[in-house]
Predict the structure.
Amino acid sequence: MLSQRSIDLRLEIIKPLSLIGLLLVVQLTVAERSERFDNFELHYSVVNTTFLSASVAEKYGITRGERHAILNLSLRELFAENSASVGMELSGRTWDLIQNQDLNFTMIKESGTVYYIARFKFINEEWRFFELDFSPEGSKQKYQFKFKQQLYIN
């Protein structure tokens, strides 16, 4: 049987380790949703359209369905006075083992924030690859960003 002192000592060791583990998970999660390019930060997410409410999907002309998804992008200028999102010239494509598709982006402006969304279909459990080329508004610098994500039917 463990003494109270042994239990207290183990808890003193476990608490910091749990906190470190939690912080690592949070940092990895955040790192997967944005990427830095010089003074800009590209925020991105891939969302199955079944997560969108019917009213939001209707407002933006998005087809809801278990094999339909959207890529959502927003670009922020770091170190800017108001750190607002910025527009960008944007093109991209997505593919899996069977299908290849150019992405057609729609710009959405809401409350001073600029978003770009592109719709695409996917196959359950397949890895989806994305390749984006973008240039921030007012800049001649061009950037390329690639990532992959596995998608699932809900």
User: Anything to note?
Assistant: The chain is about 20% helix and 45% strand. Residues 4-31 form the longest helix (28 residues). The CA atoms of residues 87 and 137 lie 5 Å apart.
